[in-house]
């Protein structure tokens, strides 16, 4: 192939790229026509009690060490992050190779399905699609809405989301569970604090993380400790499997 022909092809590809996404250089943010700037936000699900060496958000009063039974999940309060899910929903993919050995692939998949269904029951316009498995291990902007176990910066789990500032629509969102913690799955009907001792329950934590994809923010005041979007988690906790009043009305408020 002649050099001039190669240059012409390269110029055409660049022109198409620029027409769709705008000109991008190493010192510029990702910009798309009619969508705005691509912004990244990371939401961290903190452990309770805290590691003294780990940076923690504001907490009014002494941290609770053990899981607490629900006393009031009728609190009608929620926080909004500023994005919403696409009308067509999000297709997620699971890296089953990262799932702890004590949890079967089938059980993990079912726990994830249960979590998304909890939110879909609250707001029927919300949609998630199981896109099967992936070999992707790390969270990055790569076209994969990843669910995996990996580094979570000392937290229980993190939700890493990219969204367009012009439309408020999610472009991509990953959920990473800490690979350094012990995990289990327990029937949520067993009770608010009936999970396996000294482990974090997958469905309990996943339901909270999917709440971030919905567009709901963490809540840190103790008044909201019985809501799914309470920003702290404990071992053996199952009560985030079901939504409180604020979670439900928040989902309805921000759903596409």
Could you please describe the fold and organization of this structure?
The protein has 256 residues and is an alpha/beta fold. The chain has two domains: 3-32; 43-254, Collagenase (Catalytic Domain). It is 23% helix and 21% strand. It contains four helices and ten strands, in the order αβββαββββββαβα. It has helices spanning 3-21, 105-122, 202-214, 245-254, and strands at 31-32, 36-47, 90-94, 128-133, 145-150, 157-164, 170-178, 183-184, 200-201, 232-233. Strands 1, 2, 3, 4, 5, 6, 7 and 10 form an eight-stranded mixed beta sheet that branches. Helix 2 crosses helix 3. Residues 5-28, 51-55 and 58-64 have low confidence and may be disordered.
What is the gist of this entry?
This protein is an alpha/beta fold and 256 residues long.
Layout of secondary structure:
Layout: H1 3-21, E1 31-32, E2 36-47, E3 90-94, H2 105-122, E4 128-133, E5 145-150, E6 157-164, E7 170-178, E8 183-184, E9 200-201, H3 202-214, E10 232-233, H4 245-254
């Amino acid at each position: 192939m002649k050099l001039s022909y190669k240059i012409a092809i390269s110029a055409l590809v660049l022109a198409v790229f620029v027409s769709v996404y705008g000109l991008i250089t190493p010192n510029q943010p990702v910009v798309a026509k009619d969508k705005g700037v691509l912004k990244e936000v990371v939401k961290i699900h903190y452990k309770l009690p805290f590691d003294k060496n780990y940076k923690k958000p504001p907490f009014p009063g002494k941290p609770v060490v053990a899981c607490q039974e629900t006393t009031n999940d009728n609190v009608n309060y929620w926080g909004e992050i500023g994005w919403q899910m696409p009308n067509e929903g999000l297709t997620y993919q699971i890296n089953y190779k990262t799932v702890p050995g004590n949890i079967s692939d089938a059980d993990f998949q079912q726990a994830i399905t249960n979590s998304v269904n909890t939110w879909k029951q609250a707001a029927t316009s919300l949609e998630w699609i199981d896109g099967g498995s992936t070999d992707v291990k790390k969270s990055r902007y790569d076209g994969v809405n990843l669910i995996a176990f990996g580094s979570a910066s000392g937290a229980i789990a993190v939700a890493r989301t990219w969204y367009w500032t012009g439309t408020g629509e999610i472009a991509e969102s990953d959920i990473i569970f800490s690979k350094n913690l012990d995990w289990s799955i327990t029937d949520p009907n067993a009770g608010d604090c009936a999970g396996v001792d000294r482990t974090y329950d997958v469905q309990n934590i996943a339901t909270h993380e999917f709440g971030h994809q919905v567009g709901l923010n963490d809540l840190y005041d103790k008044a909201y400790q019985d809501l799914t979007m309470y920003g702290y988690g404990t071992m053996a906790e199952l009560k985030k499997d079901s939504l409180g009043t604020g979670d439900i009305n928040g989902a309805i408020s921000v759903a596409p």
